[in-house]
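To: structure desk
From: M.T.
Subject: fold request, one chain
Message: Could you run this one when you get a chance? Sequence is below, nothing fancy, just the single chain.
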Amino acid sequence: MSKKRRAQICVDVLMTLDLLILMSYRIAGEFIHEILGVIMFVLVALHIVLTFNYTKALLKSGFSVDRLIRGITDYLLLIIYLLMILSASTLSKHLLSFLDLSYYSGVSRIIHLICSYWGFALISMHIGMHFDYVFAKPMKNKKVKPVIITVMSVLSVAGLYMFIHEEIYKYMLLINPFVYFDTEGGLLLFLSKYVLIMIMYASIGYGLIKLAKIKKKK
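Reply: Done. Structure tokens follow.
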């Protein structure tokens, strides 16, 4: 494995961990949330630089449904990420408070809320779209394949339950503009719930790519 590939994996792992803690917001605390937001900005910038050649090759290659799905997901993520940066700059009470943009905080809070939950979904799906490479060899093994499918299915169903139980869809559709945090459970319980939800989203991303490639073969 090349040094660049190791760096990519390290950045991706850190981004995933950072994202999960960012979603905790009230539990982790506002100051920690802002610090992690800045760290996420740096990690995303590194991710773009490290995957630039891959993105360039993807754009140059011929049309296919799986490339279209990846492209749409990535461009939507970029738009959402930019909106999150702009909205976060007006909501900051610590690191960027000197900008004095609190006048726009009402609209920014709504934008940040929607982008946070849609961004979490798209990033998780983006991760799942790369499961195609991770599971390429294991899925060829007839003994390992059913184990992977069973485990991922169980975790995804659990993630769907948490998605409904935590009423994530209400935040995504702005049915409820105020997020409820169960602080009694603590950070670890919160993260375990969101890991399951992330796996559910990732499974959707993986499934979309697999279906697109099956259609491509036909």
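Reply (cont.): Residues 186-217 form the longest helix (32 residues). Let me know if you need anything else for the meeting.
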